[in-house]
Amino acid sequence: MYAALIYPNINLTNSKIVKESLLLYDNLYRIVPEDVIPQDNPDIEDFNREYGLIKEISPTPYTRDVYEKFSENLDRWTQNAYGISHLPESRLHKTKVYDELMKIIIREKILEFDGEWLRGNESFIGSYMLYLATEISTRNSLNLVTDEPSVWVCQEYMNYDGRLLNVETADDNVFNTHSMLGVYLYEYIPSNIDNITFDNIIEFRDKYRVERENFLKQYMKFYNELSKISSPIVLRDALESYLKEMKSGIEEYKNACRYFGAQRFVGLRLVSIPIISQISNLFLNLNPHMKQMLATLGLALSILWELTSYKQEVKRIRKNNPFSYLVLLKNLGFSNHQRIRNNIYNDMKELIYD
């Protein structure tokens, strides 16, 4: 079974990301407190009532572990989280926060109570929710998908506790833990996705189950195998070995999607895969040949960097990490990408050029 956690919202209002995810995944999950009833888009609500493919995970069993990890760097998360200080207020349901952490948050006036919710700085809440989503994903072997591009700016703190690492001096042990590897699934969405109904999606899943599963299976195999490699030479050979197999799976999947009448494919969906990995260090210094091989596969590894100190560090990050999300946004011309909202692009551009 292939499954994913949709993050960060309790309520699903974006039919498009749900359709895109259901093209690939057998089941979808979301984080929902036990006493909360989601208020979904009517189409999503009707679909889920009939098929039950979108399920709920309570945050309660995970909040203590998140508290212990998150509180170690609490000061860092309160200071310009995401490197953006002008974000509006947001809210966080109180049952998503362990009691001890909630006491600290209220005592330090980081957030304040608003009924059943904690309200305050959006960047701080986003940082916490990303940590919670990662904990749930890694402990349940779920991929993590989102329709909020800005949340990936701070992905790297989940792997490295918010440190902007110098690769040359990094402790090797930091790479030997569960981490989330960002993966771009490139041009896999039928261009007419808006006109595809949820019933069409179910028909497709039943008719082309093998092609759909092979597509994801090859991606997962690709990254799981690479995660065991610690030699740049072996890494290069592995990339070459998987090239033909990966391209074949992608083409089979796209041919299956002709079922929808799609003549072309769009989209650049960022998916995060939980792995135990030493590979992160290798991908910070890929040579041009390896980069081209990844481009040929139609994907890019994205070791994403938290930018608490972005004004001082962004040039070094851009040099050391050519696959960072910020750089990819710039290089892939997201200023003209209709699916990225203008305000998000402006935030990203500020971080890229500052």
What is the SS-derived class?
alpha/beta
Domain count: 3
Strand order of the largest sheet: 3-2-1-7-9-8-10
Total count of strands: 10
Helical residues, percent: 40-55%
Oligomer: single chain
What is the N-to-C succession of helices and strands?
EHEHEHHEHEEHEHEHHHEHHEHHH
* Rg value: 20 Å
Number of helices: 15
Average pLDDT rating? 68
Stretches where pLDDT falls below 50 for ≥5 residues?
80-85, 152-182, 273-286, 293-354
Portion of residues in beta strands equals 15-25%
General shape:
globular
Task: Report on the biggest sheet.
Answer: 7 strands, mixed
How far apart lie the N and C ends?
43 Å
Keywords:
354 residues; alpha/beta; 3 domains; 7-stranded mixed sheet; 3-stranded antiparallel sheet; 15 helices; 10 strands
How would you summarize what this structure contains?
The chain is α/β, with parallel strands linked by helices. It has helices at 15-24, 42-51, 63-70, 74-78, 99-107, 122-140, 156-160, 198-207, 209-226, 232-256, 279-283, 288-296, 310-320, 325-331, 342-353; strands at 3-7, 27-31, 54-57, 89-93, 111-114, 117-121, 143-146, 178-190, 265-276, 301-302. Residues 80-85, 152-182, 273-286 and 293-354 have low confidence and may be disordered.
Detailed description of the structure:
There is one protein chain. With 354 residues, the protein is of the alpha/beta class. The chain has three domains: 3-57, no CATH class; 61-159, no CATH class; 178-306, no CATH class. Helices cover 46% and strands 17% of the residues. The strands form two sheets. It has a seven-stranded mixed beta sheet, with helices on both faces. It has a three-stranded antiparallel beta sheet with strand order 4-6-5. α14 packs across α15.
